[in-house]
Design brief:
Elements lengths: L7 E5 L2 E12 L2 E15 L5 E4 L7 H16 L3 H12 L18
Length: 108
Amino acid sequence: MEDDKPMAKFQAGAVTCAVWQNRVNIDGRTTTILKATVGRRYQDREGIWQTSQSFSRNEVPMAIHVLQKAFELMLEKTPEQEIREATDEAAGRPGQARAWHEDPKVRI
């Protein structure tokens, strides 16, 4: 992860989801890829706070909720995507930058 702090954090009860910006090089260009982590905070028998990636039946809907919020945020364009699209349009290459749902590599 690029920074020590997430760009966004969503919480429902003890379940949290953080969205992180990761800078990567793809075909010689640096771009930002968003990733999400999900966890649950709890106190163990000694009273020490712990984090787990396992969820009880009642926590699964909360995990779904925070992941949905993260997914909605990820669907919004990053500044790099907006700049790339504007550059493509100015260079006479409209439509070069496709939305995630138009990319044949993306599977849902």
